[in-house]
TrEMBL record:
This is GDP-Man:Man(3)GlcNAc(2)-PP-Dol alpha-1,2-mannosyltransferase. It is found in: Endoplasmic reticulum membrane. The keyword Transmembrane applies. Pathway: Protein modification; protein glycosylation. SUPFAM superfamilies: UDP-Glycosyltransferase/glycogen phosphorylase (SSF53756). Residues 133-305 form the Glycosyl transferase family domain.
Length: 331
């Protein structure tokens, strides 16, 4: 009798849980090959969630190369062939078995559930100098131009902050960086640009669409702060990237940023949490008004905290979570 192993990776919308791996051992009556099943609702969103999935698959393949990996996904528009090609192309993961689409049920086995933070590839960001040009403090905002990212809130907060800026403080600049998936996103970006004109801050705001990664890194290297304003985001990889790059995060006061990311590191504050336009504006003014040494201290603590979500850490924690079942398998 052969054992079959199924691992469901569930991303819950309910809480700050980042990624939950529910492990279950199934005894098969048939002489099947051992396989690992991943459940992932969105396998091709092009963002952090997709990266988590393929890094998890890669971790399995490194630990146990003979295991078959099967991906169950909710993407109706993704074919097994296109997912297989994307995994190889973007993340260097070769699937042993083409992913299956659609899942009907969602299992929860809390007893065998482990939490592993998603892998953020921040090594290139961790080496950027923490010092920033002080004449024009840059606030960066990195997010796809999709509705839930709430770009308008950021723009309004920036405008309020400019209106309240003390005469002795430097005038900041806001840089929006993001990709557009389709025409709706393009329209959203256009509306944002119109809104900047309407608020009379268009001279202080820059827009960058579909940047190359190295250009994004260049911008992150110049930013004193990073904006995030999505409500109830499971995790918030962009927030970790700000922190790794030395930009102090101003993130939404909910879910991932609140419960996992923007927490104190060795008793030192690592960033700001906000919800309303006023709170975001306050945070901007606080960062701009900070003495250089204080800003450096906070940025250094934020960078240190970001290390908790590194790719290396992911592999370490994920492999620790799967080892018990791999051991079970060889018994
Ligand atoms: C959880 O695991 C423990 C120890 O393996 C076991 O005794 C307990 O019955 C399990 N609970 C559930 C709800 O499966
Ligand atoms: C763009 O993509 C989003 C998400 O997939 C979708 O909801 C929206 O309808 C799309 N818009 C267009 C014009 O295709």
């Amino acid at each position: 009798m052969a054992n079959g192993f199924l691992i469901w990776a569930l991303i819950t919308a309910v809480s700050a849980f980042i990624l939950i791996f529910a492990l279950r051992v199934i005894s098969g009556r048939w002489n099947r090959k051992t396989a690992v099943g991943f459940f992932h609702p969105y396998t091709n969103d092009g963002g952090g969630g997709e990266r988590v999935l393929w890094c998890a698959v890669k971790a399995f393949q490194e630990e146990s190369p003979d295991l078959e990996c099967v991906v169950y996904s909710g993407d109706h528009d993704a074919s097994p062939q296109s997912l297989t090609a994307r995994a190889l192309d973007r993340f260097g993961v070769k699937l042993l078995h083409p992913p299956n689409s659609h899942i009907e049920k969602l299992w929860r086995i809390s007893n065998r559930t482990k939490r592993v933070y998603p892998p953020c590839d921040t090594t290139g960001l961790q080496v950027l100098p923490l010092e920033r040009e002080a004449k024009t403090p840059v606030i960066i905002s990195v997010a796809q131009f999709r509705p839930e990212k709430a770009h308008t809130l950021q723009l309004e907060a920036f405008s309020v902050a400019l209106g309240r800026l003390a005469a002795d403080l430097p005038r900041p600049k806001l840089q929006f960086v993001g990709s557009c998936r389709n025409k709706s996103d393009e329209e959203r970006l256009q509306n944002l640009q119109n809104k900047a004109i309407e608020l009379k801050v268009d001279g202080d705001v820059e827009f960058y669409k579909n940047l190359m990664y190295r250009d994004l890194v260049r911008l992150l290297a110049g930013a004193v702060a990073g904006f995030h304003s999505m409500t109830d985001e499971h995790f918030g990889i962009s927030v970790v990237e700000y922190m790794a790059a030395g930009a102090i995060p101003i993130a939404h006061n909910s879910a991932g940023p609140k419960m996992d990311i923007v927490l104190e590191e060795d008793g030192q504050q690592t960033g700001f949490l906000a919800r309303s336009v006023e709170e975001y504006a306050d945070a901007i003014l606080k960062i701009i008004g900070m003495p250089g040494t204080e800003r450096l201290k906070m940025a250094a603590a934020a960078r240190q905290r970001a290390g908790r979500f590194s790719e290396q850490r992911f592999y370490q924690d994920f492999k620790a979570a799967i080892r018990p079942i791999l051991r079970h398998r060889s018994q």
